[in-house]
Amino acid sequence: MIRDLCGYLVDTIGVLGYPGIFILMAIESSCFVPFPSEIVMIPAGWHIHEGKFSWFPVIASGLAGSVFGAWINYYLALKLGRPFFIRYGKYFFVSEASIQKSEAFFARHGSITTFVGRLIPGVRQLISLPAGFARMPFWRFTAYTTLGAGIWITILTVIGYLVGSNQEQVNRYVRDALVWALVGAAILVVGYIWWQRRKNRPGDAPVNATRPPPSQ
User: What are 120-168's pLDDT values in tens digits?
Assistant: First the structure.
């Protein structure tokens, strides 16, 4: 099933081409659709190994899409403000808790957060909002975002290329990982059942629970 899913993702990116990479990464970079960049750039890297794509257009398309999506978030935060997102963000997959988390991160580290945040899952898509709330200078926001997104996109693309060049080894690793995951899950289930039975076994109640109260 996993191999079929991977094959589907690779085929889809191959059909969409460079414009598809741009569009999908713009969607990923905005915080309104929970869409991981891994399922775009890793297949794109795979296609580089296969000779269907080239390095520069892939990275340029992904980077341009990421920056464009970040601009959308930045301008919406700048124009609509924090109260709008606190009240209506849940309708766009942005919870108040996630906004507060990104704001706290931004407050601790300042403007460079827009660079560091692009490398952190769970923060990457949201870090543009506190930058807009704080009215961070646009040129600085764009520079930090471009640098962080460029590093992240390059890493994912290289991973995809390496996966494509070691398909047999990767398939073996995936198979072994699934086996160990199943074994681990079975151990956890058995251990949980044993613990529940031991906890509920008659006679295991604490001694203090059955000791009569002291006489007066």
Answer: 776 777 888 888 888 889 999 999 999 999 999 999 999 888 887 665 5
40, amino acid identity:
V
Mean pLDDT (the chain) is: 77
User: Has residue 181 got a pLDDT over 70?
Assistant: no
> SS in 3 state form for the chain?
CHHHHHHHHHHHHHHHHHHHHHHHHHHHHCCCCCCCCHHHHHHHHHHHHHCCCCHHHHHHHHHHHHHHHHHHHHHHHHHHHHHHHHHHHHHHCCCHHHHHHHHHHHHHHHHHHHHHHHHCCCCCCCCHHHHHHCCCCHHHHHHHHHHHHHHHHHHHHHHHHHHHHCHHHHHHHHHHHHHHHHHHHHHHHHHHHHHHHHHCCCCCCCHHHHCCCCCC
Q: Report the C-alpha gap between 71 and 65 in whole angstroms.
A: 10
User: So what's the pLDDT on residue 209?
Assistant: 47
Domain boundary assignment for the chain: 2-165, 166-201
pTM for the whole thing? 0.68
Is residue 28 within 8 A of residue 35, CB to CB? The reply is: yes
